[in-house]
Design brief:
This protein is of the alpha+beta class. The protein has helices at about 1-20, 50-55, 55-70, 90-95, 125-140; strands spanning about 40-45, 70-75, 105-110, 110, 115, 120, 145-150, 155-165, 175-185, 185-190, 195-200, 200-205, 215, 225-235, 245-255, 255-265.
Length: about 260
């Protein structure tokens, strides 16, 4: 009797183990809603070996998050190879944004907003300039925006996107759609702060080989839509619960990319 029960239990275990995992279908892009608004992008150029990044730069980042709220998406970019959280995507963004004098530097929509005075950076003027730029951008009629849904599988991250143009733009311009993996509260050292601290909104990777994404393959006319699915392997060094995705629309001008709009999951 015991042998029969053992064999029955073993058979059930084998059958359960052999069952194919049910695939969750990807979202239908046609059902995705696209926000009809502008969301600014604030990038803090930072490094873990940089003392000012852990002092006034850290405080500035916290204040800007409160002052701009959902009008802006904030990302910390670590472009120094000797810094923790270094990424090639951070290097590409920093180079695209143009000249900067030092770390930390605050960019809004790809423009350096650090206000230089004798002896360094003016904290108050830099903060006020960043906030004004975000607020002014929020009042503009958006060119385009992207809505998307995210799925985390065991080994990869998948997002299904829908981009809509709200205004008809010059057809001589090329538009690109990019998606990025960002991780919040990444623990690590920071010069200027004791012990390990939680680093906010760390740019982990671009979801495409080109940091600035893929061409939007429709004419930039009001009402035109573009759908695309992005996939990236899930790095085991990332904490899944702290991950989120952002998308950015770029306008290519020559060899550089100008910020158009951003969206966050």
């Amino acid at each position: 009797m015991k042998n029969r029960l053992f064999l029955l239990s073993l058979l059930i275990l084998v059958l359960v183990s052999c069952q194919k995992k049910e695939e969750v279908p990807l979202p239908d892009a046609n059902t995705i809603s696209v926000p009809r608004n502008n969301t600014a992008l604030i990038n803090k150029l930072t490094a873990t070996w940089c003392a000012p990044c852990g002092s006034w730069g850290w405080l500035m980042n916290e204040e800007l998050a409160v002052l701009t709220g959902d009008k802006a998406i904030m990302i910390s970019i670590y472009n120094s190879p000797t810094s923790l959280f270094f990424s090639q995507a951070s290097v590409d963004l920093a180079e695209n944004f143009g000249p900067y004098q030092s770390w930390p530097t605050f960019f809004v929509n790809g423009q350096n907003k650090n206000v230089q005075i004798s002896g360094g950076t003016s904290y108050t003027e830099t903060k006020n300039t960043c906030v004004k730029t975000v607020n002014d951008f929020a009042e503009l009629i958006p060119v385009a925006n992207t809505g998307f849904e995210t799925r985390f599988d065991d080994n990869e991250i998948i997002i299904v996107t829908k981009t809509v143009f709200f205004r008809t733009m010059d057809t001589n311009n090329e538009y690109y759609l990019a998606a990025y993996v960002v991780e919040n509260n990444v623990m690590g050292e920071q010069k200027g702060k004791p012990g390990e601290v939680a680093h906010p909104n760390v740019l982990r990777a671009s979801m495409t080989e080109n940091t600035f994404g893929i061409p939007i393959d429709v004419e930039p006319d009001a009402g035109n839509e573009f759908t695309y699915t992005f996939t990236i392997p899930h790095d085991p060094g990332w904490t899944r619960e702290n991950l989120y995705i952002i998308t950015i629309i770029w306008r290519k001008t020559g060899d550089s990319y100008e910020f158009v709009n951003a969206s966050r999951s």
